[in-house]
Amino acid sequence: MKNLFFLLLVGMAFSSCDDEQVLGDTSTINLNFTALYSGEPLVTNNLDFQYKYPDGREVAFNTFNFFISDVVLLEEAGGLEAELVDIDFIDFGQNTTLEDAQKPISITNNNVPSGNYKGLKISVGVPTDLNNSSFNQFGANHPLRKNDGEWWSGWDSFIFLKVGGSYDTDGDGIGVGQDASITHHLGSNAVFRTITIPKQFVLEPGQTFDLNVVTDVLNLYQNGNEYLDISISENRITHDPDNLDVANSIVDNLGNAMSVE
Questions:
Q1: CA torsion 250→32→23→84, rounded to 10°?
Q2: What is the pLDDT of residue 197?
Q3: Could you tell me if 197 and 259 are in contact, meaning their C-beta atoms sit under 8 angstroms apart?
Q4: pLDDT number for residue 117
Q5: SS3 of 243, please?
Q6: Is residue 4 part of a domain?
Q7: Domain that holds residue 249
Q8: What is the 3 state secondary structure string of 58-82?
Q9: How far is CA 84 from CA 30, 81, 202, 255, in A?
Q10: What are phi and psi of 33, to 5 degrees?
């Protein structure tokens, strides 16, 4: 009996040491998402906030959202990846004041391996295996189930990214005279994109680190020194799954639009 009691104490001691080792080797990451337009906080659903498009006309926004998936940190050595987010939905549609727009949408992971990292890899969209599944198979709190309104049966796909708003067609400002709708709704497996954003940082054991992901909407429309010509009505809409030219041009710019601070 004495020997058994001694073995139990030893086992408990080793178990305690192992627990401390795991805790000591992990950190907390706050993944903070904010949206900008030409470097300024993006305010939505508020016509007091109108932004200048490069052609000189005003634009205003009521929608900006996207799915993120397979978000990982890239370790500096060894090529390993530390998973942060499986899938989630980022929605800036409630940024109706400047104060709202300056507050990030945050996702926290409390169990990230400590160490040296060299960047963030992030996919925008829903991976093919999930996109081709019925959202009804997921639990009530799953991001695809909670955001099943983003499923479009006509596309047989979730809408991966949305930019919506108004464009001033006659030069007198949004809300006066003639305005046109911007409805860039991007779906289908063809517009799924993964980008890698370089960022050197160190996660210290037991510490919390803020990783700030900034998306500038204007840069989604920039191709080199040129911008998408949204004075052309066909360029203001992406509702045809058989014509993805505009959709692809937008998601191909994600690498320029997203940055990590």
A1: -20
A2: 98
A3: yes
A4: 98
A5: coil
A6: no
A7: 28-260
A8: EEEEEEEEEEEEEEEEEECCCCCEE
A9: 10, 9, 15, 19
A10: -110, 130
Confidence of residue 162 (pLDDT cuts 50, 70, 90): very high
Do strands 193-203 and 226-227 pair parallel, antiparallel, or not at all (unpaired)? Answer: unpaired
Write down the pTM of the prediction.
Answer: 0.89
203-234: pLDDT as tens digits: 999 999 999 999 999 999 999 899 999 999 99
- The DSSP element (H or E) to which 109 belongs, if any, is strand 105-113
Please say if the pLDDT value at position 177 is more than 90. Answer: no
Q: How many domains does the chain have?
A: 1
**The residue count for the chain:** 261
Q: Is residue 104 part of a domain?
A: yes
Residue 247's closest CA among 255, 259, 239, 257? 239
Within-domain flag for 203: yes
Please, which contacts does 221-227 make with residues 24 or more away whose CB atoms are closer than 8 Å? 221/250, 221/253, 222/253, 222/256, 223/249, 223/253, 227/53, 227/54, 227/55
Tokens standing for residue 131: 């996109």
Q: Give me the DSSP letters along 115-139.
A: EEEEEEEEEES--HHHHTS-GGGS-
Structure confidence by residue, pLDDT tens digits, 178-210: 899 999 999 999 999 999 999 999 999 999 999
Whether residue 81 is contained in a domain is answered as yes
Question: Which tokens sit at 31?
Answer: 């993944």
